[in-house]
Amino acid sequence: MEVGDVIQFYDSDKLFPAWGFGGKAYNGTVSHCFNLNGSSDASEVEGVGGIMAAYAGALQNFTLSGPTLFGHVVNKAAEIAVESLKYNHSKYFVLLIITDGVITDMQETIDALVRASDLPLSILIVGVGSADFSQMEVLDADNGQRLESSTGRRATRDIVQFVPMREVHSGQISVVQALLEELPGQFLTYMRCRDIKPLNISAAQTYGPGQSHAQLELEE
């Protein structure tokens, strides 16, 4: 809710694709990327409240199940980013992943992230619970080492930020600040590398509660 309340102000229609992964249906099938709202067609829900409602509804039809695979949802988000580039080069996407499991498709996820590093996409990961999230730190690549795919290709840029909720609960950090602190830099790196200029928008137009275009530029 806290993260969504911040980033939703940068989305014009407030419609968000929402997917579940690691969910076992009553017929025993485990899915690693399914529409959270139960629809077989559209994955979008309205607002942060819609995401929460869709999750609550999905728990009526799915039970939590392993293994924990990220590759499917990363590729799904990448597909949306690729499609958007056909019509609009000024859009940027953020994928928020909330997980309580140890990732089991590490190489597939790294390969997907390396491919996605060329796209207008950032990925925020929240680790819930007491699992060993050391692999998430590898995906985060804060050590300065860019991810390398199974074919030897290096990521164009770092697009992942990981935060364990146990550090939030212990009062060490703010989840919103920790998750979003690298996002402006990732966004600007992508846009500057492609020489994409900001739209000509009046400084009076607001981007968030009491936040003007001029204020946004100052904060960046």
Structure commentary:
This protein is of the alpha+beta class and 220 residues long. The chain folds into two domains: 1-66, no CATH class; 70-197, no CATH class. The protein has nine helices and twelve strands. The strands form five sheets. It has a three-stranded antiparallel beta sheet with strand order 4-3-7, with no helix packed on it. Strands 8-9-10 form a three-stranded parallel beta sheet. Strands 1-6 form a two-stranded antiparallel ribbon. Helix 3 packs parallel to helix 4. The longest helix has 14 residues, at 71-84. The chain is globular, with a radius of gyration of 18 Å. It starts with a helix and ends with a helix. Residues 1-198 form the Copine C-terminal domain. It comes from Capsicum baccatum.
Secondary structural class:
alpha+beta
Major sheet, described briefly?
A: 3 strands, antiparallel
Query: Into how many domains do the coordinates divide?
Result: 2
Radius of gyration: 18 Å
> What's the average pLDDT?
85
**Poorly predicted parts:** 203-220
> How much beta, percentage-wise?
15-25%
Quantity of strands, as a count:
12
What would the principal axes of the Cα set say about the shape?
A: globular
Strand order of the largest sheet: 4-3-7
**Strand and helix order:** HEEEEEEHEHEHEHEHHHEEH
Beginning-to-end CA distance, first to last residue:
23 Å
User: How many DSSP H or I helices?
Assistant: 9
